[in-house]
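Marked as duplicate of an earlier ticket. Keeping the data here for the record.
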Amino acid sequence: MRRHPGRGEAGRTVTEAPSARRADVGRRIGVGLMYGLWRPRVLGAWKVPATGPVILAGNHSHNVDGPMLMGTAPRPVHFLVKQEAFVGPLDPFLRGIGQLPVDRSGTDRSAVTRALAVLTAGGVLGIFPEGTRGEGDFASLRAGLAYFALRSGAPIVPVAVLGSAERQGRLVRALPPLRSRVDVVFGEPFQAAEPGGRRTRKALDEATEGIQRRLAAHLENARRLTSR
């Protein structure tokens, strides 16, 4: 059931979840682009729960990782996307496919509210927990992923995108080699903490450490599985 603006229990303001229909349009566009330009090999997509709130946590080494995951995930995904990407014609386009701008310079409360609304409505939230493009090895995680997982109780599904950062054979410098293989490996869903646990700063830090270990282990397994 979709949430609508207004007052919920105890006078709390209820935020409407971003449109799942728009995210589905984004998924269809992602499917066309990713399979048209590259050769994605998707492993373990069946591990993503078919219904209910889910957080997809992906590694991030290239700009194409977001669209690649959007086009290969079995369900429509609302990604938290850096605010700087919402410029010019990209602004209405990204909003039109259900993506969520986030100001990374501080705590963006409006982005947090919208992201939690996605999970409350039973949708899929996509996060690159490293916060920015890097080595894509989950070596440095921000606490945002743990916060969303603890607040919502949604399971985390680790995702490894491998091959997007390859440089040999590029015709366009900013893109992976066209028609090259990119592996997308989904892992087993897991909970960030025991149900009913406290949401203290210490619990958040412990959850972040535990999540980092799980994501790093999945990445290692994915590399071994794909020989990447």
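See parent ticket for discussion. The helical segments are 20-37, 65-72, 90-96, 109-120, 144-152, 201-226.
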